[in-house]
Amino acid sequence: MVDSDVDLSLSAWEHLCDYEKFNAMLNGVTEATVVERLRELAVPFMHRKYGTTGTLEGVDYSSNQPVMSIDCSETFLVKWLKEKAKDNNLELCSVILEEGCKDSEGIWLFKDEVEMIEVGLDCIYACTLTDRWGLMASILCDLAQKSFKRRQPIGGSEDFIQRKGLERLLRNSHSSIPSNSKLTMSPLFLVEDDYSQLSVSGSNNALDNQEERVDIVENLDKRLRLAEGHVEAGRLLTHYQVSKPIGFFLKAHEDQKGVKQLLHLVLSKFGRRQPGRSDNEWATMWRDLQCFQEKAFPFLDTEYMLLEFCRGLLKAGKFSLARNYLKGTASTALAPEKAKKLVIQAALEYFFSASSLDSSEIWKAKECLDLFPSSKQVKAEDDLIDAITVKLPRLGVMVQLQVTMLHL
Q1: By C-alpha distance, which of 88, 83, 86, 110 is closest to 97?
Q2: Across 234-385, where does the E strand assignment appear?
Q3: pLDDT the model gives residue 106
Q4: What is the pTM of this model?
Q5: DSSP code of residue 200
Q6: 6-15, 34-43, 145-154, 229-238: which range is least confident on average?
Q7: Where are the domains of the chain?
Q8: pLDDT for residue 184 is more than 60
Q9: CB 185 within 8 A of CB 68
Q10: In 97, 248, 271, 395, which residue has its Cα 20 to 30 A from 195's Cα atom?
């Protein structure tokens, strides 16, 4: 019954729990064989177990006939997929999810489209690899198309199609059930437009409440969009050689300091890796920073992102380009006082990194200060640098560059 790599005696087989038997049936499967093994062996076994007992993973659902609660524990297949995803075998998960996304054939794998979307998202976030962004994007695309593509209004927008698609799947599954009742269904998974096996028992059920159903729709929609944004942000981090697994983004808001350090590292690497970067390359970097803020780090305001970008420009010696961005952009305003403070900080960093009075770092510091020539505060710093590097040496007084360190 099982793969040839599994050598079990009948006695040993009988002592396995149902999930262990299900797992054994799938031992050794590959991307090429997993769907066939599921169709011919594992899924029929799963269905039989749900259909001949009132138990799912130790949870009892006793009634006059075998039924499975709509909010029951995860199925064998869902549990198995999550385990494979934790082992970073996302390719295998992708094949099964792709099969589940087929119009009329894939429903045999999952209870419904909601379960399929949820397990698909769980698999993606369980993967810790940082070179599977294309595969993750493909999975998300398949999930979205499955749930939203049918009954599309002619000329309807994508947002409308997606929202109505999810509303349809929940409405079709539950709207025929009276309120104030508990929905149960046969362990044989429901197929669209076939609800003959639904039964009702008295009890409140949140899924029968229209507002709760809308919440589920909106939550799934948000989770899909969020995951798409995380994939895009993850791909960008990898591009900038600061890779993070997709799960990092789910808890990024809990470590804002760490996120800021991460973005600082991105900008630092970008400037150092190729010092002579063009203005177009820096413009692309600014767009990518905006993408990070929008898709992954919305807790960081856009002004902060612009300040850090300008800091990167100043450190890279892109003073002319920095002048433009320090004035703010069409979408992001930058407070003049913050801009001046940033320029002074960058200038002093240049100045104190100089090894001698004729170092090019000193002239970079002066170029930096020239970005705000009319500012009294900036002019005071410029005068200080001029006094230390020009006027005092003319008088025969040599001052160590660290003498004004306390001025920072």
Answers
A1: 110
A2: none
A3: 56
A4: 0.76
A5: E
A6: 145-154
A7: 10-229, 341-408
A8: no
A9: yes
A10: 97
